[in-house]
Amino acid sequence: MAEKRSGSGIAAGTAGEGGDRMKYWYVGAALLVLAAGAIVLLKRKKASEDPLEDGGVRHRVDTHAPKVIISKEIIEFSCKFSTTDRCIEDTPIAGGIFTLYANKEKGHFEICGRDAIAGKQSFCPDETFFRQLQEIVTRHHLAQYNGQFYTVSGLPPDLGMQLQICYASKESISAANNQSAFLPIEAMEDLVALFKNAIYKSGGI
C-alpha cells in the first residue's frame, strides 16, 4: 500500500530543494567572481610585461618592501648613477657617471665623464668603511626609496640610478629609476667622498 505524503513533508521537501538551489547559486556566483578576478590579474600581468613604446612610463612599487631596516651590517653595496642630466655646478659629482661597489672582500669605484679617472679603481673595504657607509644610509634615510622602480622607455642606458644594499640579516634596499638619480645631491656627494677616500687609502687616484 502506497504511503501518502503529508503536507508538512511536501513543504519540507520543497524547502530543502529551494535551499539547495540557493546554495548552488552562491557557489556559482563565487566562481564567477574568482574567474573575473583571475582575468583582471592576468591582464595586469600581461600589461606589466609588455614592452613599452619609446616615451612610455612604467612605475612599479613593491608595497612589501620595508622602509625601515633593522640590521646595520651591510654585506654588499651597489650603486650606479648619472648626473649628466642635472644642471649642477660646484660639486664633485657634477656631470659624471659613477659606479660604486663594495662587499666584504673587495670594492671598486669608477667615474666616467667630467673629472673621470683612468678606469676602474679597486680597494679592500674594512669595518670602518662599512660603518661609515651605514651612517650615510641612515643619515639620508635611503630605506625610504626601497621598492620603487621607475622606467621610461627609449632613454640612453647611462641615465638615472640603480641602488642595491644587502644586509647580513637578509634585509635589503633596492630601487631604480632610469630617467634621473633619485637620491639627494648631499647623499650622492657623501657616497662618492667615502669611496674616493677608500681609494686614496689604498694608494689609488
Which characteristics define this entry?
24% strand; eight-stranded mixed beta sheet; 2 domains; Mago nashi protein; single chain; 205 residues
SSE order in H/E notation?
HEEEEEHEEEH
Mean of all residue-level pLDDT scores: 84
Q: The biggest beta sheet, please?
A: 8 strands, mixed
Structural class by secondary-structure content: alpha+beta
CATH class assignment of the largest domain: Alpha Beta
Q: Please state the overall shape, judged from the principal axes of the Cα atoms.
A: elongated
Number of strands: 8
Computed CA radius of gyration, to the nearest angstrom: 29 Å
Outline the structure in words:
The chain starts with 6 loop residues before the first helix and ends with a helix. By secondary structure, the chain is α+β, with helices and mostly antiparallel strands. It is elongated, with a radius of gyration of 29 Å. It is 36% helix and 24% strand. The protein folds into 2 domains: 7-50; 59-201, Mago nashi protein (2-Layer Sandwich). The protein has 3 helices and 8 strands; from the N terminus they run H-E-E-E-E-E-H-E-E-E-H. An 8-stranded mixed beta sheet has the order 1-6-8-7-2-3-4-5, with helices on one face. A hairpin with a 4-residue loop joins strand 7 and strand 8.
